[in-house]
Amino acid sequence: MSFRKLRNYVTLTLLDRGFEVENIREDLIKAFQKDLKVNVWISYKDYLEWFDPLTIIEMFDLMNVDAFIVIAYRASFLADEILHSLDRARYWYDIFIDVKVYSVDISILEKAFEEVINNILTTFIEKVSNVYKIEGICPSCLNNLILLYTWEFNSKILEGKVIEKIYKCDSCRIKIHRLEKVS
Ligand SMILES: [Zn+2]
């Protein structure tokens, strides 16, 4: 897949998942949904060009985001490098960057990217919540489950249109992500 095609795919997928999208640089996409801020870095390189933690924080604007997605051929390696760099920022400069880093391998792009978005929306459910409804019973503690997010999109995992539902239990705080196929 060419860089341009990959970028278009990522942008269209984010829009389909309810994000607003802003292209910052050729390799960096900013995505917003309510209070959730996610930066996506698409890299055809398999190494980091910058080693100073401050440069990395600045290049990817990591000060101002909740989640950072690395899309690359060796995405988990790059994600580890970035996490190490953020550790160094803490030791060297006393700067704590509170960002969750996710990786998406280009060779399994479609399903991996969908899964990462599912994880991010579930982790940050309070920031994106668009509904509040008691629906069902918590499988863990049997209290009420609260539906906090619902969205319809085209799933690559279930191969078709789905309704996404994210629940939280107010008692035990478990979060549950579900996809239901629309027939
Ligand atoms: Zn519960």
Kindly describe this structure.
The protein is 32% helix and 36% strand. It contains 5 helices and 9 strands; from the N terminus they run αβββαβαβααββββ. The mean pLDDT is 95. The radius of gyration is 17 Å and the shape is globular. α2 crosses α3 (75-93). The chain has 2 domains: 3-123, Trna Endonuclease, Chain: A, domain 1, CATH 3.40.1350; 129-181, N-terminal domain of TfIIb, CATH 2.20.25. Strands 1-2-3-4-5 form a 5-stranded mixed β-sheet, sandwiched between helices. A 4-stranded antiparallel β-sheet has the order 6-7-8-9. It has helices spanning 3-16, 53-59, 75-93, 109-123, 125-128, and strands at 20-25, 28-33, 36-42, 67-72, 100-105, 133-137, 144-155, 160-169, 175-181. It is α+β, with helices and mostly antiparallel strands and 183 residues long.
Fold topology:
Layout: H1 3-16, E1 20-25, E2 28-33, E3 36-42, H2 53-59, E4 67-72, H3 75-93, E5 100-105, H4 109-123, H5 125-128, E6 133-137, E7 144-155, E8 160-169, E9 175-181
Parallel strand pairs: 3-4, 4-5
Antiparallel strand pairs: 1-2, 2-3, 6-7, 7-8, 8-9
The protein binds zinc ion.
Zinc ion (ZN) is lined by residues 138, 140-141, 143, 169, 171-172, 174.
For the biggest sheet, the summary is: 5 strands, mixed
Please work out how many helical segments DSSP would assign: 5
Mean pLDDT: 95
Ligands, deduplicated: zinc ion
Number of domains: 2
* SSE pattern, N- to C-terminal: HEEEHEHEHHEEEE
The class by helix and strand makeup works out as: alpha+beta
**Strand line-up across the major sheet:** 1-2-3-4-5
Sequence stretches where pLDDT stays below 50 over 5 or more residues: none
Strand content: 35-45%
Report, as a whole number of angstroms, the end-to-end distance: 31 Å
Tertiary shape: globular
